[in-house]
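TASK: fixed-backbone design
INPUT:
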């Protein structure tokens, strides 16, 4: 596996650990629908939390969350809608981003951005 794929997998694992430690129930990882993939779907406080994980080895060029484009948002929203219908989930949905970046000592720092985007922003 390519080094960047290893880093992405590690970042997703860290995001799952972070969410679980903070009371989220992980429902599914890497949910795919058509061209879209949702990294993590979780549940907490009667909400479905759709989470995009973005990892970068540096933020010199852009912050990880800046890589979530309008096109990516549309795909995520489409996949989330399909998931809700397919699994008969009648809960409100929140879209979050978790970023993973190394600090100056190469420790990986997890940042959770809640309500990172709204479904209607995708139109």
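OUTPUT:
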């Amino acid at each position: 596996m390519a080094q960047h794929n290893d880093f992405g997998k590690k970042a997703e694992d860290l995001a799952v650990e972070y969410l679980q430690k903070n009371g989220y129930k992980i429902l599914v990882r890497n949910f795919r629908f058509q061209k879209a993939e949702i990294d993590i779907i979780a549940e907490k406080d009667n909400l479905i939390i759709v989470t995009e994980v973005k990892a970068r080895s540096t933020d010199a060029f852009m912050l990880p969350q800046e890589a979530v484009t309008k096109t990516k948002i549309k795909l995520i929203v489409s996949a989330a809608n399909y998931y809700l219908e397919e699994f008969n989930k009648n809960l409100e949905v929140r879209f979050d981003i978790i970023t993973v970046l190394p600090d100056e000592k190469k420790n990986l720092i997890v940042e959770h951005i809640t309500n990172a985007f709204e479904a209607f922003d995708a139109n």
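COMMENT: The first helix runs from residue 3 to 21.
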